[in-house]
Amino acid sequence: MQGANWLAARHGIGGSLVTPSGERRSAGDVLHQLMEHITPALEEAGDMREVGSLVHRLLRQGTPADQQRRALDQGLPALIDLITTQSTAP
Q: Within a 10 A sphere around the Cβ of 3, how many other Cβ atoms?
């Protein structure tokens, strides 16, 4: 379990995850399977549109850690700008 958590934290949505059956799959594939599994419950609760939108944004933009790593690749000033912008946004 700790290894799976480490993989998820280190590599974010672009990495691999360990499924409950022990398979290593891309995080996007695992998320897609999860969405297929929970779609009926989301639709019944009226939450499918919101959750689908959030998942789409996550897959497009990555996690905040992914965003911070991309900013750091551009240099420390870019990372500081990202963090201060996100921290002060309404």
A: 8
Nearest to 29 by CA among 15, 8, 49: 15
Q: What is the pLDDT of residues 9-23, one digit of tens each?
A: 777 778 887 787 888
pLDDT in tens, 50-68: 999 999 998 888 888 888 8
Q: Are strands 16-18 and 24-26 parallel, antiparallel or unpaired?
A: antiparallel
**What is the greatest pairwise CA distance in the chain?**
46
* Cα–Cα dist 31/61, whole Å: 15
At 26, give phi and psi (nearest 5°): -65, 145
The CA distances from residue 17 to 50, 60, 61, 64, 88, in Å, are 24, 18, 18, 18, 32
